[in-house]
Design goal:
The protein is an all-alpha fold. The chain has one domain (3-128). The chain is 71% helix and 0% strand. Helix 2 (18-28) crosses helix 4 (47-56) and helix 7 packs antiparallel against helix 8. The longest helix has 20 residues, at 110-129. The protein is globular, with a radius of gyration of 15 Å. It starts with a helix and ends with a helix. It is found in: Cytoplasm; Nucleus. This is COP9 signalosome complex subunit 8.
Length: 130
């Protein structure tokens, strides 16, 4: 699967577009198909980035729906997916102090670090307004 649109959005720091791009790509993909390398769709899908994309635009309902659709085996094998959802859970309950703890409490991959840092700055700014 070609993830160039996601990579391009990440490179240009267009984090607000990531959820829509991921949603569109997911609709185009056949989750039951197997790629040419023999890797199942679920194994190569960037669930962490997809979740963080929804979280970045404050679409917690879509993040929650995505979380529920992620296969349990992926959640077990990819701890970063769970760490991203932990941020979503804290936002769901509006516990902003715990949001920052969830962000700081995980060693993010370089790919996720960029959007997590941007979101952290955004949420910190929002919290300062209240």
């Amino acid at each position: 699967m070609d993830f160039t649109p996601i990579k391009d959005a990440m490179t240009s720091k267009s984090y607000g577009k990531i959820a829509d791009i991921c949603d569109d790509l997911m609709l185009q993909a056949n989750p039951l198909s197997v790629s040419t390398q023999g890797i199942a769709f679920e194994d190569e899908w960037p669930y962490t980035i997809h979740l963080l994309g929804h979280i970045y635009v404050d679409d917690i309902n879509s993040a929650r729906f995505l979380w529920k659709s992620i296969p349990p085996a992926i959640k077990e094998r990819q701890p970063e997916v769970g760490a991203a959802w932990k941020i979503g859970q804290r936002l769901w309950t509006r516990d902003y102090a715990a949001v920052h703890e969830a962000i700081r409490g995980f060693e993010w991959s370089p790919e996720a670090q960029c959007i997590v840092a941007a979101f952290s700055g955004k949420i910190f700014h929002m919290a300062a307004l209240f």
